[in-house]
Design brief:
By secondary structure, the protein is mainly alpha-helical. It is about 75% helix and about 0% strand.
Length: about 325
């Protein structure tokens, strides 16, 4: 996985090294405790997928500029702020195998750290008059919040249609990847049409990415043992939604009851078995592949370049990943 990511990153390898420096600088604080926490956040960074989407999108549509670095930093600052706050809301002690900020420094400090990251992102844009980039990312943060709340609202009644599911994942997940691609294009000096195309490209990739994530819960030969975490948390994802659409009224009532009261041993496994029998996995995979194909069609309208090839590899990476 690491070698594949390195290969995808090749056209922007220098920029990514420079970005790391600039991003760390954007998080600096004179308050010792805050600086210590910022260092901890930087050290536990993930695969750097979001900045990669920004830089590659900029390369596809124009030139990588100073504003591209600021755009990538803005997304990382605002997204990290939402994650820190999410961990407080979820009372989560771990994030990507590391202790969460609230686990180490308690909720009050974690909320203030999230606020600090948010303000640093806003100031970075305002100080450099990157108002268009700020608008793109602020829209994404708004969508992500709405998506989370919509999912929580629907989880109570377990009343989610396929259309509502698409609305939730478009807002919760796809809006962020979409904003990465739009920020990259906008920062490169691309025209409005190209920015919109890259935004739509990112949305399609994000939809495919989330459906892949939902499929992990059910397990396949490639993925391994089913997890059933979404079922335990009463999250209605595409495989289950499709399976329920194909079920009789009595079957549907029985499965909904199992999801609602899933404490009994073997209940989650029965739901997974039901989804498999109703071809929920096969259907979700077909939808995921459709979104991926649509993303590729949009990308194919741009001129050939090494950035474009790497972006294609990124799309495949999001679907081929095994975790």
């Amino acid at each position: 996985m690491k070698s594949r990511l390195k290969q995808i990153q090749a056209p922007i390898a220098t920029e990514m090294v420079e970005f790391e420096k600039k991003f760390r600088q954007s998080m600096k604080s004179d308050v010792l405790l805050l600086d210590k926490i910022m260092n901890y956040i930087v050290k536990r960074k993930g695969k750097q997928m979001r900045p990669m989407f920004v830089f590659l999108s900029a390369g596809v549509t124009g030139k990588i500029r100073d504003s591209t670095y600021r755009g990538a930093s803005l997304i990382e600052l605002l997204h990290t702020a939402t994650l820190v706050h999410d961990d407080v809301v979820d009372d989560a002690n771990y994030r990507r195998g590391f202790f969460s900020i609230n686990a180490l420094w308690k909720n009050k400090i974690a909320v203030l750290v999230g606020d600090y990251l948010l303000s640093r992102g806003l100031l970075l844009s305002i100080d450099n008059q990157d108002f268009e980039l700020l608008k793109i990312v602020s829209d994404a943060v708004k969508e992500m919040s709405e998506g989370e709340l919509l999912q929580m609202e629907k989880a109570r009644s377990l009343d989610i249609t396929e259309d509502i599911y698409y609305d939730i994942i478009r807002q919760k997940t796809a809006s962020l990847i979409s904003s990465c691609c739009a920020v990259g294009a906008s920062s490169s000096g691309a025209n409005g049409q190209s920015v919109e195309k890259m935004k739509l490209f990112g949305e399609k990739v994000g939809m495919a990415f989330q459906i892949k994530d939902d499929l992990f819960d059910y397990g396949t030969k490639e993925i391994g043992k089913p997890l059933g975490i979404d079922i335990k948390e009463k999250k209605m994802t595409l495989p289950l939604i499709h399976a329920l659409q194909k079920a009789s009224w009595l079957e549907k009532k029985s499965v909904i009851r199992k999801v609602r009261n899933n404490k009994k041993s073997g209940t989650v496994q029965k739901v997974i078995q039901f989804v498999n029998e109703k071809d929920g996995i096969v259907y979700a995979e077909s939808v995921m592949n459709r979104y991926m194909d649509e993303a590729m069609e949009i990308l194919d309208t741009f001129e050939p370049s090494e950035y474009k090839e790497s972006l294609k590899d990124m799309v495949h990476f999001t679907i081929d990943r095994d975790k």
